[in-house]
Design brief:
One of its GO terms (molecular function) is acyltransferase activity. This protein has a single domain, classed as 3-Layer(aba) Sandwich (Glycerol-3-phosphate (1)-acyltransferase). It has twelve helices and nine strands. Strand 3, helix 6 and strand 4 form a beta-alpha-beta unit. It starts with a helix and ends in a 14-residue tail after the last helix.
């Protein structure tokens, strides 16, 4: 009867002539970083589902917790838990910070417009930190396809994510809320290079701001594209697929632990003589100056791990 040691020796004796172990080891070392860059985005997806799972558990036990809560909002405690999870992830992995928080009105409404990264983790961190520091919810507009993803509906209910029309956005702003919109949307997320804005003629945010007469505040996150990227290989194919389906097909890789800082710009206040086109141009010019100032100038800076 063969012992374990004899079996191992038998395998070695019969494979050593057929397998180049040195080459296999070299190949493993070469491919590991590539595999990791595609696995790290999965962590974000898992974190989203962890958030959804937390909310489902909370919803299941709402009857028991109801008497312990003094607020009428059933999502209040759950929202705090989800915000703490994302705030902790941002601080640990990216040393996430907000610069210019004083530009955000403490009590009044504001329309926040932001650049859409390949994976918009910066807005998750931003929502969490603003909620924990200001105790105010930042309502957000998301693409319609997200609402068809299992588990997203409960996240949208709790975190106040909406598909968004000009009318619904204007109504939220008139009620005194914060509202965040990425004018470039999923198109910008997939195909923007070097932080170029891809707003086309999307004027919905400008129309909502002018109708509600609220300030427009640009926010931009430093190193967002250095944390997560989309593949350039097959770009034309992904663009055609997006044109046909309006769904994102470009693969995302990354998850690099770069330092992230969200810069809140100075408000663009309501002017009655501004047209939606003028407001869009005015807002985009703020981003041009911001991106030139806060993007790395050489690739050596891209993967600098943040100091904690």
């Amino acid at each position: 009867m063969l012992t374990i040691n004899q079996f191992i020796q038998f395998i070695k004796d019969n494979t050593i002539d057929y397998v180049d172990f040195d080459y296999s080891l070299w190949l493993t070392w070469c491919l590991t970083p590539l595999v990791v860059t595609f696995l790290l985005p999965v962590v974000i997806a898992l974190l989203l589902y962890l958030s959804a799972f937390t909310l489902y558990i909370y919803k299941l036990h709402w009857g028991r917790l109801r008497t312990a809560l003094i607020t009428g909002d059933k999502w209040e405690a759950a929202r705090k838990v989800v915000a703490i999870i994302w705030d902790a992830h941002g601080w640990i992995w990216h040393g996430y910070e907000i610069s210019g928080l004083e530009n955000l009105p403490v009590n009044g409404p504001a329309l926040l417009i932001y650049y859409h990264g390949a994976m918009p983790v910066d807005i998750y961190y931003f929502l969490a930190k603003v909620y924990l520091s200001r105790n105010r919810i930042v309502h957000t507009v998301a693409d319609h396809f997200l609402f068809k993803i299992p588990g997203f509906s409960i996240l949208s209910d709790c975190m106040r994510v909406i598909p968004g029309t000009v009318q619904s956005c204007s109504k939220l702003l008139k009620e005194g809320n914060y509202l965040a919109i990425a004018p470039g949307g999923v198109y910008e997320a997939q195909f923007s290079l070097n932080y170029s804005l891809m707003w086309k003629r999307r004027l919905g945010f400008a129309k909502a701001a002018l109708e509600s007469k609220v300030p427009v505040i640009p926010i931009f996150t430093e190193n967002l594209r250095e944390a997560f990227r989309t593949m350039h290989l097959g770009r034309r194919l992904f663009l055609k697929l997006y044109t046909w389906t309006k769904l994102p097909f470009a693969p995302i890789y990354g998850g690099f632990p770069v330092k992230m800082v969200t810069h809140i710009g100075r408000p663009i206040y309501y002017e009655p003589d501004l047209s939606p086109e003028d407001l869009q141009m005015k807002a985009s010019s703020r981003f041009t100056g911001r991106t030139d100032q806060d993007t790395p100038k050489d690739t050596g800076q891209y993967f600098t791990i943040h100091s904690r």
